[in-house]
């Protein structure tokens, strides 16, 4: 018999009271008898808001996604909405993705809002995350919710919260909401709906959103150039099938081949080990189809359509996957060029990225004389910049984890508009006798060759969480002094908000919110960052290396040298 700690047992016993339905209590009793390890995992802590909201495995318990954990969050959010907008009837938009239980959980969330006298606009069927951000502002809502676990495995679901500006919940709202939620009892949740306050939305919002995506993602590409581009697209069984094909069609792209085996939304994601476009295996079917139809570009999106993975033809005419940094650099440079052509760069513009993304974005900002703002990981921080600096015009921004945002009509990463933007770049490059890949090499020639590598270590369960915590403690208390033979010249601790010059010992303050992130800068220009994931049981290590690219002909050799250097750094840190 596995011993269950008293604190965990107390949590479990709370869920065996009449506040919770019989089905929930039966599952708990069965787990205590037959799977005590699982029941401890389910109750040892409360699910927390991370960089992308709350995300977790579905099931009973305080550490699981279920009607009670989501109900409690929604009750707390309802209370906060009434506090924030006294004298008004708050309005909320709700969307959900293809995952198991997303539709029923979305209805439960809608019920709780309506029971608290909040007007609800609930999508009639699955929709993309960027459409929710757009719909929130379009319908003048105060708040928005998406039921999604992004690219996590099938057993996960999640709950993203958006505020009035269309961006995810950020300070000061997030901490106040969390405190209100923590002060609630499960018995405080109002589950009985007021159906008169719940309104179905669908095609009317789709139409406006897709038109806005076309408007923001199109840049005067000639019709002949569009006709000459062949595109392979896969939704990886997710929600983007509801928006991307129609967006490309309205933008004038006709040669679009969809991976039929992955077209139907399916929460089991049956054709992939992971529905994550960061994983090369997820795009294998799309790459196979690309060879069959001789496509110029392959694009795949994750289940809620906020991330996209891209493959293009390289110098040997083979399809090559790009990493998130490469895609971000290409998209940002293209947007900057378009703004420059249109004489829109007037000294009040900015681009944005995150502390673990490529430093090359700063080089682009300098070249075009715009400001580059760097924030914590998570698009909520990029959206917050737009809110905090209304006097500046946001051009675009992204992060290494395959997300990008074009302008500010959607205030979260947006794979719908970004898919169109990628096709615009590819079509114009091909029409100019170049290619997406060749244009990327030209950027390396001009600004320096930056190459990144990410290693994620998965540490599941209670023991895994403790191991990740200890790894960060060890790295913080014993910072590296030499990496791969190169001295560490600067060490940043974002949890302590301190940047330390390792040569002089001088410390300066870091003026962005605290986060459990450490970054090392070496004498030879390399960067190594580490952070626990905010949404998965992982600790991530990011390596960025760079050098000068002297010629197009030397590209392959230089790339191999950078890849080898990143590999050596990871070996030196005993990560591979």
Q: Structural class of the helix and strand makeup?
A: alpha/beta
Parts with pLDDT < 50 across at least 5 consecutive residues = none
Distance between the termini: 37 Å
Shape: globular
With helices defined by DSSP (H or I, 4 residues minimum), what is the helix count? 18
The whole-number mean of residue pLDDT values reads 95
Provide a brief overview of the structure.
The chain has 576 residues and is of the alpha/beta class. Helices cover 38% and strands 22% of the residues. β11 and β12 form a beta hairpin.
Explain what the structure shows:
The protein has 576 residues and is an alpha/beta fold. It has 18 helices and 24 strands. Strand 5 and strand 6 (156-162) form a beta hairpin. Helix 2 crosses helix 3 and helix 4 (67-84) packs across helix 7. The longest helix is centred in the first third of the chain and has 18 residues, at 67-84. The model has no long low-confidence stretch (mean pLDDT 95).
Name the descriptors.
576 residues; alpha/beta; 8-stranded antiparallel beta sheet; 7-stranded mixed beta sheet; 18 helices; 24 strands; 22% strand; globular
Secondary-structure topology with pairs:
Layout: H1 6-14, H2 22-34, H3 36-43, E1 49-50, E2 53-57, H4 67-84, E3 91-96, H5 102-115, E4 119-123, H6 129-138, E5 143-147, E6 156-162, H7 173-183, E7 198-201, H8 203-217, H9 223-227, E8 231-234, H10 244-250, E9 256-258, H11 284-293, E10 297-301, E11 308-313, E12 319-321, H12 324-341, E13 349-354, H13 360-368, E14 371-375, H14 379-388, E15 393-399, E16 403-406, H15 415-431, H16 436-447, E17 449-458, H17 461-477, E18 482-483, E19 486-493, E20 498-501, E21 507-509, E22 518-522, E23 527-532, E24 538-547, H18 555-572
Helix pairs in contact: 2-3, 4-5, 4-7, 8-10, 8-15, 12-13, 12-15, 12-16
């Amino acid at each position: 018999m596995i011993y269950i700690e008293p604190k965990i047992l107390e949590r479990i016993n709370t869920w065996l009271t009449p506040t919770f339905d019989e089905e929930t209590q039966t599952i708990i009793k069965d787990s205590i008898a037959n799977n005590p390890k699982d029941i401890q995992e389910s109750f040892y802590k409360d699910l927390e808001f991370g960089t992308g909201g709350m995300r977790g495995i579905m099931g009973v318990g305080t550490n699981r996604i279920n009607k009670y954990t989501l109900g409690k969050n929604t009750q707390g959010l309802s209370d906060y909405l009434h506090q924030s907008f006294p004298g008004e009837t708050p309005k909320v938009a709700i969307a959900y993705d293809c995952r198991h239980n997303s539709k029923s959980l979305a209805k439960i969330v809608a019920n709780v809002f309506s029971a608290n006298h909040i007007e609800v606009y609930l999508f009639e069927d699955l929709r993309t995350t960027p459409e929710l951000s757009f719909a929130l502002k379009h319908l003048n809502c105060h708040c928005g919710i998406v039921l999604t676990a992004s690219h996590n495995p099938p057993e996960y679901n999640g709950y993203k919260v958006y505020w009035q500006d269309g961006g995810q919940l950020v300070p000061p709202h997030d901490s106040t909401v969390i405190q209100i939620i923590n002060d609630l009892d499960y018995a405080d949740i109002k589950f009985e709906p007021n159906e008169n306050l719940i309104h179905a939305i669908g095609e009317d919002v789709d139409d406006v959103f897709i038109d806005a995506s076309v408007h923001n993602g199109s840049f005067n590409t000639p019709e002949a150039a569009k006709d000459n581009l062949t595109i392979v697209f896969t939704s990886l069984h997710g929600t983007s099938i509801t928006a991307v094909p129609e967006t490309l069609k309205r933008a004038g792209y006709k040669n679009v081949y969809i991976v039929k085996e992955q077209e139907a939304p399916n929460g089991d994601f049956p054709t992939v080990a992971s529905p994550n476009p960061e994983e090369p295996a997820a795009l294998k079917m799309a790459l196979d189809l690309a060879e069959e139809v001789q496509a110029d570009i392959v694009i795949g999106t994750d289940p809620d359509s906020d991330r996209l993975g891209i493959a293009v033809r390289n110098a040997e005419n083979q399809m090559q996957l790009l990493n998130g940094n490469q895609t971000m650099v290409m998209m940002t440079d293209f947007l900057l060029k378009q703004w420059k052509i249109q004489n829109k760069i007037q000294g009040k513009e900015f681009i944005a990225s995150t502390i673990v993304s490529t430093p090359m974005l700063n080089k682009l900002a300098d070249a075009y004389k715009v400001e580059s703002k760097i924030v914590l990981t998570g698009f909520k921080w990029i959206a917050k910049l737009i809110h905090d600096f209304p006097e500046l015009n946001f051009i675009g921004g992204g992060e290494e984890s395959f997300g990008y945002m074009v302008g500010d009509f959607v205030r979260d990463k947006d794979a719908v508009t970004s898919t169109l933007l990628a096709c615009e770049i590819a079509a114009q490059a091909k029409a100019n006798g170049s290619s997406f890949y060749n244009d990327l090499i030209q950027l390396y020639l001009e600004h320096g060759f930056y190459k990144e590598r990410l290693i994620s270590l998965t540490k599941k369960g209670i023991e895994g969480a403790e191991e990740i915590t200890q790894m960060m403690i060890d790295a913080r208390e014993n910072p590296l002094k030499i990496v791969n033979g190169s001295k560490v010249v600067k060490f940043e601790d974002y949890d302590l908000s301190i940047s330390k010059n390792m040569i002089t010992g001088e410390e300066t303050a870091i003026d962005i919110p605290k986060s459990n992130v450490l970054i090392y800068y070496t004498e030879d220009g390399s960067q190594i960052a580490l952070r626990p994931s905010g949404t998965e049981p992982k600790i991530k290590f990011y390596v960025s290396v760079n050098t000068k690219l002297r010629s197009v002909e030397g590209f392959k050799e230089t790339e191999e040298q950078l890849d080898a250097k990143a590999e050596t750094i990871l070996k030196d840190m005993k990560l591979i």
